[in-house]
Amino acid sequence: MIHLFEPAKQPGAPIFLLLHGTGGTERDLIGLVPLLHPDAGYLSVRGEVTENGMPRFFKRLAEGVFDEADLALRTERLITFLHESSETHGFSVNQLIPVGYSNGANIAANMMFENRLFEQAILLHPMVPRRGVTLPESAEVRIFIGAGSNDPICPASETEELARLFEQAGAELEVIWSHHGHQLVMPTIEAAASWLAKQ
Ligand code: MLT
């Protein structure tokens, strides 16, 4: 998979798994890394699917309607890639902290629906990736969700449902709302950095 990797600057510092939104690339979220943690490294991946030339992590049938077969396939491929990268670069997959925006947050959430892979995650403007799933037991998993109260693409009801599903599985959630639609705004990133520092 097309990706960029940068090791952490200090042992024990986070390695963020950066997952961009629709139409983004592996370069998009790199600027967030030092804002979230000064010593963090990253593994930033480009989605393998393209929709009218725009990279994504899985196909959709319409806006907000996901191709579940493709989602399952791409989730499995991404997890395999994470395991391969962990061997190549010498980290363990559960050290990764996904930082996903929109479509990238959705595949991060879907990885977490399937496996107890990560201990922490930052999901920015996510949706419920799939319904009718039993989530893995997620006690001691911490999740930060940054959402938009007036986001037309990832409606607030989706965020609330996603948070509820993770909470029912035992995860500790922090949900921060902004009022700028689907945009990623600095107060959300600052809130994510403080949440990360609180661990
Ligand atoms: C999706 O996965 O389709 C999103 O949540 C919306 C988008 O990325 O445009």
From TrEMBL:
The keyword Signal does not apply. Residues 90-177 form the Dienelactone hydrolase domain. It comes from the Bacteria. The keyword GTP-binding does not apply. GO terms for molecular function: hydrolase activity. It holds the Pfam family DLH. SUPFAM superfamilies: alpha/beta-Hydrolases (SSF53474). Keywords: Hydrolase. This is Alpha/beta hydrolase.
